[in-house]
Amino acid sequence: MESLDLLLFGFSEIVTIERIIIVFLSVFIGTMIGVLPGLGPVATMSLLLPFTYNTSLLSGMIMLSGIYYGASYGGSTTSILVNIPGEASSVVTCLDGYQMARQGRAGPALGIAAIGSFIAGTMGLIGLMFLAPPLASIALKFGPPEYVSVMCTGFVLLTYLASGSTIRALMIAIVGIMLGCAGLDLETGLPRFTLGITDLLGGIEIAPFAMGLFGISEVLINIEEVLKEKRSVFSAKIKNLLPNLQDWHDSLVPIIRGSVLGFFVGILPGGGAVVSSFSSYAIEKKMSKHPERFGKGAIEGVAGPESANNSATAGAFIPLLTLGIPSNAVMALLLGGLMIHGVTPGPRFLPEHPDIFWGLIASMYVGNIFLLVINLPLIGIWVHLLQVPYKLLFPLILIFCLIGCYSINNNTFDIGVMLFFGAIGYLMRKYKFEGAPMILAFVLGPMFETSLRQSLLLSDGSFLIFLTRPIAAAGIIVSILILLSSVITFIRKRKGVIEK
Amino acid sequence: MKKKTKVCLVATMMFGICLLMLNSTDLVRAKDSDYPKKSIKYIIPFGAGGTTDVTSRALIKATNKYLVEPIIAINKPGGGGVTPALAVMNAKPDGYTIGAFSSTHSLMLPNTDECPYKDLSGFSIIVRYGKYLWPVVVRSDSPWKTWEELVAWAKKNPKGAIKLGCTSNRARSPVGHSIFTVERHEDFEFTFVAFKSTGKVLSALLGNHIDVYAVSTTPSLMEYVKEGTLRILAYIDVRNPEHKHIPSFREVYEFKPTNFVGIWGPKDLPNHVLEKLGCAFAKGMHDPEFQKTMDRLYMPVSYLGRSEFREDLNEFFPFVSKTMKLLKAKAKIK
Amino acid sequence: MKTQYLIGTLFWIVVAFFIAIEAYRLGLGHFHHPGPGFIFFFGALLIIILGTIDLAINFTIKEKRGEIKKIKPLWSGLQWGKVLLALSGLIIYIYVLKYLGFFLSVFLLSVLLFNGVGSSKWWMGIGLSLITSLFFYLLFQIGLNIPFPQGFLNF
After folding, report:
1. What is the spatial distance between Cα B281 and Cα B292, in angstroms, rounded to a whole number?
2. Using CA atoms, how far apart are residues B146 and B166, in angstroms rounded to an integer?
3. Average per-residue pLDDT in chain C?
4. Whether residue B78 is found in the same domain as residue B95
5. Are residues B87 and B170 in the same domain?
6. How far is A328 from chain C (nearest CA, A)?
7. Cα–Cα dist B177/A278, whole Å
8. Do the Cβ atoms of B47 and B53 come closer than 8 Å?
């Protein structure tokens, strides 16, 4: 098949000592960056961007993209170990991954995350190889009305994230929507709920918000509950370092589902990895025979989302490489890097520069393997790190977060945001409100609102636009169906309880 | 664990102290008393990878050859542009903090309610290095082959029938102001649809969700034009030199769009700092590699020294204020 | 016991009222052309409705079947004082960062956290703080080249 020939050609491009070393170093650095909370791949990539001036284009691209997908491997590490999402797409991993760590099962969690990410990354690459051009033209069909329907589906899935009261989850989700929409209004330019603070004009940044809501609040709760009673946060017994057979059995299908889902959702610009990881979690929970296990350390809750967010990184390359349109800040940086070398991604990129495209894909295969090789042995080190007494561990965690948070924008205000939501998160947990629905709504809400208002401008105020356009209509019908199904399940449960 | 850990801890401490010592000896090195004595911070008000970012970095790289200590770029987007502007304005006027800026930061923002500065008195202008390319683009399968055809069509059809995509609220964007001027001249209206980034506007145009694109050039845009998928109807200000036949609004409607990207610093920068920086940047702009990068990013190199630049800005200011008042009034009436 | 949790719901209802007022001021637009305050206003309305339902459910259904477990005391008997101390330390760090510079701020904060909150022995706290500050300084400022604010001591 032609694609396989081209892939071999790609491999031939990268099989030089120099390039293999670059792949290894960049994924290694990427993993470390991912582990450091807050400091995302964008900051590091912009630091290294000047180095790419002096190397060949392919080497530069390999280096930058290695950091990117390496970081998504590393991001799950802190989510599992200390409940701090390394980036927004790792938030979901906190839900069950951290619980597994507390039960002494950090090893299996990290292992499944790494292996699931590897499988997903590989599947995503296969998708990239064969499906890139047709998918790109489908992605273009997604305009504002289609985004509205995608967001609707996301909102409906949101209720699956909650382990407790659904009503409370909805309430806090609405608060999340409003927090996400705070800032300068796109259409009118009016500041909304910025409290007169200029730093808020751009809205609340997701990284400090997530780090505070999940990470800092967890530390605060532990300070309160654990230090006094000299309990340890993490179970002293480490059950095993790698996933056992049962774990494999439970995780296989979620990994495959997550990979496929993540890849397709990741193609959509804006929130691809975040939305895909949340959707995967919700779908796994819905499909599970024992949904009540989720939130308490179900390995499917780690396998699915981690795979989804990794294949989403592969999907995110598609709009850039086939259309020349970056779908997130990382891709925008890669675009800059390509431009510096005089190569413009766009419709003529694939035909004119097959060496770059296929070389890049080949390097990603190699990179994925390196990542697996790097991450698996590290699991032992991470797990033992957790054995340090908590009263010595927590200052390190807090300072880590402070520094990581500052490094996002070189702005102390972000640290303030993180602490504020740390306090809010702490109070929310005491008063039984959950953080996961809030964060998902925080991401989906502004996209939903923007797309809704754009759609109504485009349709001159008519709501029919959502029904006359096929993809949009399909999305809305899917959301209604999912909603109906959960209502029916709810009614059945109540009937069952009453009949008892 | 205890013994090993202790040894590791002590070792790290010693290693660290050595490094600190190495670092501080740097500071003690004998230097001449000229500026710059340490690295200069350059604040880029946009995210990494964008046109302003890449061109600024290219300029910095070229300029660093003419300075004793390097300029280092930092990205500080946020607050709709207010945060990076304030970071420059509030810095110590010692010449070690400067930044890039566009018309948004210097003209539009001071006219909004929530911006803490209301004019340019808090800034020292250093130099202008480029102008943006602002094309008005449609798909090649659209019914309008020239700008005149579009205007004629718009006048015959209800107000706002043509959907134009842009990247921010009309009042805050220089493109928005220019289009508004044109709309008033020709007496018709677009429906302005704001998107979060140029990439999104481009995909909306390609996917046939909007009719017209009017934002800064993204490099991929030119690829689509070359390939024939998209058509440029007009340029708002400067043209791509390959497109001599395409009208420019500046010429047709005889007004000066507020189009520039420049470098500024906090007010009261000492003269020798301004001289040194201005000189170094001017030399950097002649660097062939810098010019090549600007070419690739479709940004014309456009030098203007600090006094003429400030004059320009002072000229623009009342025009922008007036336009913003008109736009605000219009928005309220809806 | 449950009433303690209901304070949370009441809190959000009250917040929602204020949001609704501000949203109205921003401008609701109308359904065919939502204004900037639209989503805030209706969101706030929804919160009030849902919150009322939540309160109603919890007040009327006395003991939900099987949930007659002992509920942990919210505030008494736990060390929320330590939490406050930690939080205050972190907040002070933000303000002090510009003046004292990165290294010193981190060092002081670590001492507070290790000794004040964590109750480690004084020499252990100071020693660990020194190493932590050093380690982070090296890692971030020198290794990763992230420009941290330099205080009056200039490092």
Report:
1. 16
2. 20
3. 76
4. yes
5. no
6. 23
7. 40
8. yes
* Residue B163 backbone phi and psi in degrees, to 5: -100, 120
Per-residue model confidence (pLDDT) at position B161: 87
Give the model's confidence band at A484: pLDDT under 50 very low, under 70 low, under 90 confident, else very high.
confident
C-alpha distance across the termini of chain A, in Å: 61
Number of compact structural domains in chain B:
2
**Could you tell me where the DSSP H helices lie in A386-469?**
390-409, 412-430, 435-458, 465-468
> Which of A116, A131, A67, A56 is closest to A359 using CA atoms?
A56
Q: Is A19 helix (H, G, I), strand (E, B) or coil?
A: helix
Angle formed at CA A262 by CA A257 and CA A263, multiple of 5 degrees: 105
Q: What is the CATH number of the domain that holds B79?
A: 3.40.190.150
3-state DSSP call for residue A239?
coil
> Looking at beta carbons, which pairs linking C71-76 to residues 24 or more positions away fall under 8 Å?
C71/C1, C71/C2, C74/A430, C74/A431, C74/C4
- Which amino acid is present at B7? V
User: Would the CB atoms of C12 and A171 count as touching at under 8 Å?
Assistant: yes
For A277, the 3-state DSSP assignment is: helix
Structure tokens at B170: 């009309």
Residue C97: burial class (beta carbons within 10 Å; 0-12, 13-18, 19+)? buried
Residue in the structure block whose two tokens are 């099989």: A15
In which domain, by residue range, is B111 found? 40-131+260-326
Q: Are strands B40-44 and B97-102 parallel, antiparallel or unpaired?
A: parallel
The CATH number that applies at residue B252 is 3.40.190.10
C118/A178 Cβ within 8 A: no
Question: pLDDT grade, residue A179 (50/70/90)?
Answer: very high
Q: Which of B16, B27, B74 is facing C138, going by the closest CB pair?
A: B16
In tens, the pLDDT along B309-331 reads 999 999 999 989 998 888 888 77
Instruction: Name every chain B residue with its beta carbon within 8 A of the beta carbon of C130.
Output: 13
Cβ-Cβ contacts under 8 Å between B and C: the total is 26
Facing C138 at nearest CB: one of B19, B72, B74? B19
Do B196 and B296 fall within a single domain?
A: no
Identity of the residue in B12, B24, B27 whose CB atom sits nearest the CB atom of C135:
B12
Dist. CA A134–CA A267, nearest whole Å: 12
Last residue in a domain, options B215, B234, B256 = B256
A293 φ, ψ (degrees, to nearest 5): -75, -20
Nearest CA in chain B to A384: B1
Shortest distance between the Cα of C88 and any Cα of chain A, in A, equals: 10
Is A407 at the interface with chain C, CB within 8 A? yes
DSSP 8-state secondary structure symbol assigned to residue B207: T
pLDDT at B88 (0 to 100): 93
Residue-by-residue DSSP string for A450-472: HHHHHHHHHTTT-TTHHHHSHHH
